[in-house]
Design goal:
The chain is α+β, with helices and mostly antiparallel strands. The protein has five helices and six strands; from the N terminus they run βββββααβααα. It has a six-stranded mixed β-sheet with strand order 2-1-6-3-4-5. The protein starts with 6 loop residues before the first strand and ends with a helix.
């Protein structure tokens, strides 16, 4: 039968970011009209909860669950933050610790996504990515943490 899932076709180009010394790359998406006889290798990418992505060839990539791994440390830091007096210098120092931990998790997720997208771009010319309404899907209280931890927004 017909699938109701719509796909957007992207051609990725890599541009060096400002942090060239750390060999990080920013992946920019440019919309491409996919024509059937262009000759390049094409692949479809489906994002999911059990596997971060599943390609149209059947390959699966698991996501590393960075937020769930850091949850214990975040819980301790946030509890410590709440025990500090509001407006105090120690509270500001504790707030910086919490912010650093959140930034660390975000950086891990972004780094993993960039490495994965670089691998896809290196091997395929045209990449079709599933078009999802992530903001609506996150409203489901049973799946929201898993969806946000997987970092679907980077791929769609």
């Amino acid at each position: 039968g017909e699938s109701s899932t719509s796909f957007r076709i992207f051609k990725y180009r890599l541009y060096p970011s400002r942090a060239q010394e750390r060999n990080l790359f920013r992946v920019l998406k440019a919309l491409v009209i996919y024509q059937h006889g262009t000759g390049g290798t094409a692949i479809g990418v489906d994002v999911g909860i059990t596997a971060l992505i599943t390609t149209s060839e059947g390959a699966k990539v698991d996501h590393p669950h960075y937020y769930r791994a850091a949850q214990k440390r975040l819980r301790v830091l946030q509890r410590s933050l709440e025990r500090k007096q509001k407006g105090g210098r120690n509270r500001r120092k504790e707030l910086v610790k919490v912010q650093r931990q959140h930034a660390h998790v975000a950086n891990q997720r972004r780094d993993f996504a960039h490495k994965l997208s670089f691998r896809l771009v290196k091997h395929f010319d045209v990449i079709g990515v599933e078009n999802l309404q992530i903001t609506n899907m996150v409203r489901n209280k049973h799946l929201s943490k898993s969806i946000l931890d997987a970092g679907w927004g980077i791929f769609t």
